[in-house]
Amino acid sequence: MNLLLITGGQHPYEESTPVLQSFISEAGHRVTLSESAEELAEDLSIFDAIVLNTLRQEATNNDLTGGQREGLEGYVSGGGSLLSIHISAASCPDWSQSKKITGGGWVLGESWHPPFGGFPKGIC
Model pTM? Predict the structure, then answer.
């Protein structure tokens, strides 16, 4: 698989991202790592999945641009696979589509997520 891993933000991504990248690579997948998220505004059809390990907000001056938001929304609505890890669901709090895309979100003083359920595990 060819994966796009978007990283960066307020959490200690410099610690978690190398571990995540290594885990994915050692499983035989190709990883494109991006701290800028510029790839979201480009042709995403080359990726089998997008992994978000990031916190994007206006307050931290790394919010997704309009083009990046459109690219991510188009990718997911077109059937692209997305894995949003941990605090990534809190990205772009002013963008209503973000909560629909990730299935969760975070509001100051209140966190939430979709219902718990089973899922198949394993790395293809």
Answer: 0.83
| In-domain check, residue 124 | no
**Cα–Cα distance between 17 and 106 in angstroms, integer?**
21
Residue 66's domain comprises: 2-112
Q: What is the CATH number of the domain that holds 50?
A: 3.40.50.880
Summarised one tens digit per residue, pLDDT across range 2-22 is: 999 999 887 788 899 999 999
Q: Which class for 52: exposed (0-12), middle (13-18), buried (19 or more C-beta within 10 A)? A: buried
8 Å CB contact between 6 and 53: yes
Residue 65 to residue 92: CA distance in whole angstroms: 10
**pLDDT of amino acid 105:** 74
Q: Which residue has the higher pLDDT, 112 or 15?
A: 15
The residue written with tokens 């790592």 in the block is: 33
Integer Cα distance of 79 and 94 in angstroms:
24
Query: How many other β-carbons are positioned within 10 Å of the β-carbon of residue 122?
Result: 5
Tokens in use for 65? Answer: 């641009």
Region of 31 on the Ramachandran plot (φ > 0 left; ψ -120 to 50 alpha; else beta): beta
